[in-house]
Amino acid sequence: MSHKLKIAGWISVGALAGALTTVSLQTVARGSLAPLPLEELQQLAAVFSMVKSDYVEPIDEKKLITDAISGMVASLDPHSQYFDKKSFKEFREGTSGRFVGVGIEISQEDGLVKVVSPIEGSPAFRAGLKTNDLITKIDETAVKGLTLSEAVKRMRGEPNTKVMLTIYRKDENRSFPVTITREEIKTVSVKGKVMEPGYGWIRLSQFQERTVDDFVRKVEEIYKAEPNLKGLVLDLRNDPGGLLDAAVAISAAFLPENVNVVSTNGQLAESKFVYKAAPEFYQRRAGSDPLRKLPAAIKNVPLVVLVNEGSASASEIVAGALQDHKRATILGSQTFGKGSVQTVRPLGPDTGLKLTTARYYTPNGKSIQAKGIVPDVMVDESEEGNVFSVLRTREADLDKHLGAGQGPEVKDPAREKAREEARKKAEEEAKKGPDARRPPEFGSDKDFQLVQALNQLKGRPVLVSKTQVVENKGEKKEN
């Protein structure tokens, strides 16, 4: 097929990626350009000349031009972006699921870097780092005061170079240095297990190049352990998205062949396209269907899809397709609302442009942009409720966000009231210790939403949310 489904998204060294990851199409530059506004370009040239000659101190010409390009693109929407050499390299690393580093999933706690989990087989894993270890220094730099992204950059580097991490292990009440040699890390975006006899759980943390193959292997493992699977939970919570072809493949794993998965629409002819549940729309190598090894029973197993405010982009494609085809019950909270497609075009050997070129639509023609997927069953993240979810940033909260293209967006006063109440409660919660505020791990027996998903599969009562508000519910739909 003519569409090359390629690059998308950002990923930190295991830090939970924000919900701005992009669903993208990799294409070549257009053969013809639109007519140029000569008068405006003359003004741009005049400003450039005046800044260069009159500014208080000499200006780097290349930087001035780069900043002008960056500003022009950034003014469009939150997802269009100019890539310089460094950011283009990081962008490519994020979509491949490969990077050079020590191999740990991390978060932040009390200003320090906390090890959520060492990636199995990584240098950090072999060095003996454990879950809940705190990193206090990276080489000679104290972690206190660094942002998580700054800490990530210091731990990354070139292959075969060394980095010394100072570790504080709380349960042993001791600090010690560990010298680790960096190497290429392959992140694992799929986890899963048999939760209890007859019921499985598969979690996708991001849609990367290896996601589909890892998904197939995990499904095979679950069916080997539990051949008589009665129900499956597909967990897309906090999955910020990624590659479009991976989203189409995961949808196709559960849907009948050749049904519509997602469509895109924009100005360009190549932006008007329908992606179906068929190998030619997601396979990376000719004649090789990555889903061919899946057990046939996966097409009919009762399915619940878990989503929340952090489920974005490719996650929303999967949830929307399975919801529209009535193949799964969508359970959780309203998703992020990232329903636009970005095309990545190289501008040279190591720079590029990521430009929003289309919106995507569910099989029933609904735009998710700035709205998201509304679950069939709204369930809070804990038994106490979901009050803090309204404080989380969603697509509709972003400056210059693209509209849905299906009528005006309607502000919901009920949500503004809920946000104010949540802010007050957040101030009270902040006075508690970090252990009291920490949510349970996804996939654990204390994972409230997962327990409700299993109840849904078993036909048992589900504790439905009494507080969640659907955003933009008054939005008009085009006929």
TrEMBL record:
Stated family: Belongs to the peptidase S41A family.
UniProt protein name: S41 family peptidase
SMART domains recorded: PDZ, TSPc
Limits of the PDZ domain: 88-170
Keyword Protease: yes
One Gene Ontology term, aspect cellular component: outer membrane-bounded periplasmic space
Start and end residues of each stretch annotated as Disordered: 399-448
Any one GO BP annotation for this protein: proteolysis
Keyword Protease among record annotations: yes
PANTHER family (alphabetical): CARBOXY-TERMINAL PROCESSING PROTEASE CTPA, TAIL-SPECIFIC PROTEASE
